[in-house]
Write a sequence for this structure.
């Protein structure tokens, strides 16, 4: 009986922790930016408006992405916690040896300069 109660308690605790995690993920408000592609890609070099989940996949922190604090010409997303730079259009981490990770897309808003 004791063992059964113990398992039940662990089950409830797990559900609680998972719920908290989901709430934290949902409550991280997305970040919408307008920028040109700055990572290696085949995209037209025009302005894109894209909404990203405000979550840094490299350090795992939420709400740390800031838009273009380094004033790049294209515009990029930088994590204020681990200083990773991301292309604001493809979401790829701009690491010298190739992207280590990429941002989670919330939605593409529009392509401002082409009709497609
Ligand atoms: Zn980070």
């Amino acid at each position: 009986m004791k063992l059964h109660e113990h398992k039940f308690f662990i089950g409830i605790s797990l559900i609680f922790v998972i719920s908290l995690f989901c709430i934290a993920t949902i409550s991280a408000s997305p970040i919408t930016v307008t920028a040109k592609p700055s990572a290696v890609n085949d995209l037209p070099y025009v302005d894109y408006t894209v909404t990203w989940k405000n979550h840094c996949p490299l350090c795992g922190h939420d709400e740390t992405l800031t838009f273009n604090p380094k004033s790049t010409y294209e515009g990029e997303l930088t994590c204020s916690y681990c200083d990773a730079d991301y292309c604001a259009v493809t979401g790829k981490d701009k690491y010298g040896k190739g992207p280590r990770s990429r941002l989670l897309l919330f939605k593409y808003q529009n392509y401002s300069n082409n009709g497609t």
